[in-house]
Design a protein that fits this description.
Blueprint: E1 5-10, H1 12-16, H2 20-29, E2 33-41, H3 44-50, H4 60-67, E3 71-78, H5 82-90, H6 103-107, E4 116-118, H7 122-132
Antiparallel strand pairs: 1-3, 1-4, 2-3
Helix pairs in contact: 3-4
Bound molecules: adenosine-3',5'-cyclic-monophosphate (CMP).
């Protein structure tokens, strides 16, 4: 059975362009409940650890620089079938390929500066949520 939690970050391009509120509204309207939320900034070291799974990819260095270039919002979200449902809401990684009306189609600037992150599995949702939030910070 698929889990009911996922993890997201609103990325530096979207916080810089004042789209935090609009993106959270989309998330709420799609029926997700916010379990934990934090407005923060990643060091290059933390961004590198968070995206360690991509460390062999050609875009890794740029991704780490970008993700540590500004503020982000990290959140744990709850809804039935959360991982798949959230990935549908945000659209494809590349905003040029994201379906109309999805968060990335509406707010992303490029394949790297793509407005939001969404976990790709229940296992990663748990790992990524734990990266940002302690037991005490979740409701
Ligand atoms: P995200 O879903 O957070 O997971 C990995 C991130 O790497 C991705 O979103 C993009 O921000 C970034 N990225 C940059 N270039 C690429 C690429 N060619 N393919 C996939 N992800 C990329």
């Amino acid at each position: 059975m698929s889990g009911n939690r996922t993890f997201t970050m609103i990325k530096p391009d979207a916080t810089a362009s004042n789209n935090i509120g609009a993106i959270l509204q989309k998330i709420n309207e799609a029926g997700f409940r916010i379990i934990a939320m934090k407005y923060t900034r990643l060091s290059a070291e933390s961004a590198g650890k968070f995206y360690a799974v991509h460390s062999e990819r050609p875009f890794y260095k740029d991704l780490v620089n970008y993700m540590s270039s500004g503020t982000i919002v990290a959140a744990i979200l709850e809804k039935d079938n959360a991982v798949a449902s959230f990935r549908e809401l945000i659209g494809a990684t590349d905003p040029a390929k994201a379906a109309p009306g999805t968060i990335r189609a509406l707010f992303a600037k490029s394949i790297e500066a793509n407005a939001v992150h969404g976990s790709d599995s229940d296992e990663n949702a748990q790992i990524e949520g734990n990266f940002f939030f302690s037991e005490l910070e979740r409701f």
